[in-house]
Amino acid sequence: MARNELRPIVKLRSTGATGYTYVTRKNRRNNPDRLTLRKYDPVLGRHIDFREER
């Protein structure tokens, strides 16, 4: 199985409407739904939820 099919690159966009993004990989087999991670948003200066965009 090719690497790109199982662990695609996804963009995580801030839910704080700042437009800040993180880029990461996710395992599609373990997490078929949209990924949500709590990460630091330097524009707001605090931790906030980042959601996968497609």
Report the mean per-residue pLDDT as an integer.
91
Measured between the Cα atoms of the first and last residue, the distance is: 22 Å
Number of helices: 1
What structural category characterises the helix and strand content? mainly beta
Task: Detail the poorly predicted runs.
Answer: none
Counted beta strands: 4
For the biggest sheet, the summary is: 4 strands, antiparallel
Helix amount: under 10%
Shape field: elongated
Oligomer: single chain
| Beta-strand fraction estimate | over 45%
- The Rg value, from CA coordinates, equals 12 Å
SSE order and pairing:
Blueprint: H1 3-6, E1 9-14, E2 21-25, E3 36-41, E4 46-53
Antiparallel strand pairs: 1-2, 1-4, 3-4
Describe the structure.
- This protein is mainly β and 54 residues long.
- It contains one helix and four strands; from the N terminus they run αββββ.
- The protein has one helix spanning 3-6, and strands spanning 9-14, 21-25, 36-41, 46-53.
- It has a four-stranded antiparallel β-sheet, with no helix packed on it.
In short:
The chain has 54 residues and is mainly β. The protein has one helix and four strands.
Defining key terms:
54 residues, mainly beta, 46% strand
